[in-house]
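TEACHING EXERCISE
Course module: macromolecular assemblies
Task: Read the component lines below, then compare them to the predicted structure of the full complex.
Student: A.B.
Group: 4
Components provided:
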Amino acid sequence: MNSNELAGIGMTSQRTRERLIKRLQEQGISDPRVIEVMRNTPRHIFVDEALAHRAYEDVALPIGYNQTISQPYIVALMTQLLFEDGPKEKVLEIGTGSGYQTAVLAQLVGSVFSMERIKILQEKARQRINLLKLRNVSFRYSDGSMGWPDSSKAPFDGILSAAAPAELPQSLLDQLAIGGTLVCPVGEQHQQLVVIRRTDNGFEEQKVEDVCFVPLRSGVR
Ligand code: SAH
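Instructor-supplied answer key:
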């Protein structure tokens, strides 16, 4: 990929990208750091070439293996919620997928630890993150519902899941630092985006809105 392709020159106009940013703002994304990073992250490199012309529409798109790259609004919303009580240093992401959310996080936090259970998706995501020269991301091919293996990097002051468990896994709650924030879709047929804040006294839960994510699956493939 040359620098023109990376910049998306000839494929997506600056106007199309600005339209997306305006739409995010109209939907309530107001954190200026999140807006700035969404504006500067080339989403077209996170989808197959055949779909690149649709990369700046506010929709989820297929990335193969029955998975999707999240809708930009959802990526922006989850990131904004994660930072609502202040900046985060160490963030665990479950479900790397295309790596788009990973790239957004990597520009806003100290380090990102990203887990994926489909090897090929992880490999492609790794290449894209390298292309963007984001050096603060560690990848793990493993079932993220168990948290980062061996708790070696825990606790995390932020945890974000891009796949929905039927119920929040205890291992993720255990790996959340006191003062930390977890953002995760929860539910089976009916899912809600949930924010959990860990305090000295336990966990506080806030339900944000109805959402539609791929399910969190156990094991790897
Ligand atoms: N934010 C990503 C979303 C990818 S879809 C993007 O924008 O591209 C969710 C991802 O979660 C899929 O890639 C799926 O394989 C992964 N996933 C599902 N269950 C998982 C698990 N238990 N551990 C790790 N990853 C998981």
